[in-house]
Amino acid sequence: MTSKLNNTVTQVHWQPLTQLLEPTGEKQQTLSGFDEEFIDIVDYIIRITHRIWEQKNVGLCYKYYSDICPVFTLGGYFECVEQVVQGTLKTIAAFPDRSLIGENVIWKEEEDKTYYSSHLITSIMTNTGNSDFGLATNKTGRVTTIADCVCFENKIIKEWLVRDNSFLIAQLGIDLIDAAIHFAKNVQNDTFNTWYSDELDRVRQTEHRIALTLTDKNWTVDNFAQSWAQTIFNQKQFSTLTDFYHVAAAHQWPGGRKSTGLAQISGTLIQWLAQCPDAKMTVDHIGVVGFDEDTIDIALRWSVAGTYSPHIERLATLKGNNFFVLGCTHLRVKNQKIIKEVTVFDEISLYANIIRDSGVSLPLLQEGA
Amino acid sequence: MFNNLIELYTRGDISQLSSNILHNSSWKQHDFTAYGNMQIEQLWLKSLEKFGFFTLSKKQTVQGKEFSALYFELTNDEANQSVSITFFLEHNKVHIKRLHCIVDTVRLAQLLNLTPEQVIAELPSPDPLFLSQFDHQMHPQSYHAMPSDICDMPKGIAQVMTQWWNIWQEKHLASFEKTYHADAQVNISGFGSNQGYGALIQFQLTLHNRMNRNYCQLEQLCFDEEQNTVAIQWHIDGDYLESDTIKRIRIPITSIIRLEHNLIVEEQFQVDWLALCKGFDLSYPFL
């Protein structure tokens, strides 16, 4: 496995923002149909994100998103650029100082001439306006987002967006289940409902008993990622974590779950999977770029589906409902072992969808739940 | 980079250190993580208000390749009181990507003539932390990080560091004797400075006995060959017993160690006890 993949394309990790916004290097990729100013796909993603969000040029969405641009999130489906513009404006109004700090962009040039980009972002933002989470809290919070985009001829034509909302609301002082109850009141459109139900069916059909053993001889990024999903998530063989993770790997999961090393990572995964004991996972997209001589960065988009088995007393009545997660993971892999993982999904929407599906009316905390 | 860190606190030189900070650098202090220049600068200004412009009275550095560490003490000459701070940083010699700063806030309270409760009230809210339950046992054939898994060190140093780690992870208390020099200088945050390792043994026993099902985990480690110094970023998870209630907690620690002839002659055991109290709603004193 070579780790010297794509090492001429912009790498965000050690670059100052001033340099990222004014790249001086030569063009590294063809980027057919893209504006001439962009030297590679990472440059495109970093600069358009900065222009739209940090410079607040919301209208640039018309330039950089196609008119029909399906955006999939666990909290809803948007189809066109108008909805992207409206959603962006609404978020900026509720969090006016929202920063989008680009941490990494892992990309792939697809066979159909599109570029796939997975953008890991940290945002700092103050909740001064009312939002989907409720009334303004005037508190500042931090949130991790991963935006997976398909880019073609200067436009984003499809996107999967995941945000660690449960970590954000913990800082804003909002209860997770209360937020989910609020979210559950949002009426979803038909496209979302069809996608959600189709995805549940698709992921549930995964054949989880087939062993995908990883050896030095068959080690490829694809095999590694598929084996990671099959062995840990589908077969729940937690002693095999040692085949995938370094003994001091850093592991960040939603809601403030921070683990280091095999014992803690094992605990995090067991506790999380226990709420969906028949969980099945599919890895739906894999991207990889080189980081340094012996290190690579892998971006995974994945889905988990199964049956909900509540571990939270307030959600006990939801037992047996459908459980579905759209998630994204960035892995830093050194000498074939994960040394750092950032996994993002929206835990509020996960519970909101279960609540909405069940048709059960749950009381909010202040109502004595 | 070390000088820039020192001059931030001794001279208030923000602009110099700002040149080492990226838009996506993170700075963790009092268990709160600040991201990017704006938030980090805000944290610096608060620190300067509390313990800025004092005299540098002690310094220890650990210059590694990707990770380095710095320990120093700042003294208020008028009050004859000081505060200790450690920094553990990921860097590329030009920029700092990630930094964990631990302030001995118990000593800071004494320096500022404030009660621990007053200092706790002024600390930033720590990052939300969701600690999942896990099996803390050292089963045969299970894998747990050792210092040599993380950092290349000469054989003799690696052996001492393994012994040092086994004292904490495996409770090999008898190893103190072969790991520490009899007159080793040991400074434990909130518990003061001691000659010899006796106080460290007592501290460790008290800590372990207040935390059931405890588990020590290494995070990062760096070694300075020229100075024979090692810095270890690690934490202890455990069930803390307080007034008949059990709280699962995590104690972040940075240990800065200096060795001579393969024995530890100096150790700074740095913990921000008051941030811990704030984060887990514990009362002070912790032990």
CATH domain topology of the largest domain in chain A: Nuclear Transport Factor 2, Chain: A
Give a short account of the largest sheet of chain B.
6 strands, mixed
Strand content of chain A: 25-35%
Most extensive chain contact?
A-B, 38 and 36 residues
Class by SSE composition of chain A = alpha+beta
Order of helices and strands of chain A: HHHEEHEEEEHHHHHEEHEEEEH
Describe the structure.
The complex is a heterodimer of chains A (369) and B (287). Chain A is an alpha+beta fold and 369 residues long. Chain A folds into 2 domains: 17-191, Roll (Nuclear Transport Factor 2, Chain: A); 205-362, Roll (Nuclear Transport Factor 2, Chain: A). Helix content of chain A is 30%, strand content 31%. Chain A has helices at residues 17-21, 41-54, 61-64, 81-94, 165-172, 176-184, 190-204, 221-234, 241-244, 261-273, 347-358, and strands at 68-73, 76-80, 101-109, 115-126, 140-152, 155-163, 245-253, 257-260, 280-292, 295-307, 322-334, 337-344. In chain A, the strands form 2 sheets. Chain A has a 6-stranded mixed sheet with strand order 2-1-6-5-4-3. A 6-stranded mixed sheet of chain A has the order 8-7-12-11-10-9, with helices on both faces. Chain B is globular and about 50 Å long. The longest helix of chain B has 16 residues, at 36-51. Chain B is built from 10 helices and 12 strands. Chain B has a 6-stranded mixed sheet. Chain B has a 6-stranded mixed sheet with strand order 8-7-12-11-10-9. Chain B has 287 residues and is α+β, with helices and mostly antiparallel strands. At the A-B interface, strand 3, helix 5, strand 7, strand 8 and helix 10 of A face strand 1, helix 3 and strand 9 of B.
List keywords for this structure.
heterodimer; A: 369 residues; alpha+beta; Nuclear Transport Factor 2, Chain: A; 2 domains; six-stranded mixed β-sheet; 11 helices; 12 strands; 30% helix; 31% strand; globular; B: 287 residues; 10 helices; 31% helix
